[in-house]
Write a structure and sequence with these properties.
The protein has 158 residues and is mainly alpha-helical. Helices cover 77% and strands 3% of the residues.
Length: 158
Amino acid sequence: MMKSWLKKYKALLILFAYLGCATLVYACLSENNPMTFLMGLFFITFSFFKLIHLKEFYASFKKYDIIAKNINFYAWIYPFIEIVLGLMFITQLNTPAASVVVIIILSSTNIGVIKSLKKGEVLECACLGVVFNLPLSRVTVIENSIMILMAIVQLLII
């Protein structure tokens, strides 16, 4: 069972390792907040995978995100929102506003994911676009919750 879980989430784990290593290097070379840098890298990297197949991301994301279900263009612009958030975090430009946006958009996604999981729906997670075939699961909720928690911490330390 662990072997199949590792195989399923291999790409995500490798991506997190890369982001962690880049953040560690940044922390060693900079006096700035490494958590802000990590959040920025996270959003820019994840937006890249969504933009590779934007149409497919749109279709997948609309199936579970609360905002995307109700506002048609939101799923189209979501990767671009992530790019802007990433740049805001990396450059430390108005991180309180960026943190509030993160809390709102990822809470919307988490609510939708939890509803879909409770219904027993088998959906593909759009977090890495459709480049990697990841299932919508508790891992999605944990990933989003960690980002929400980091955004809350950002608001508390500023």
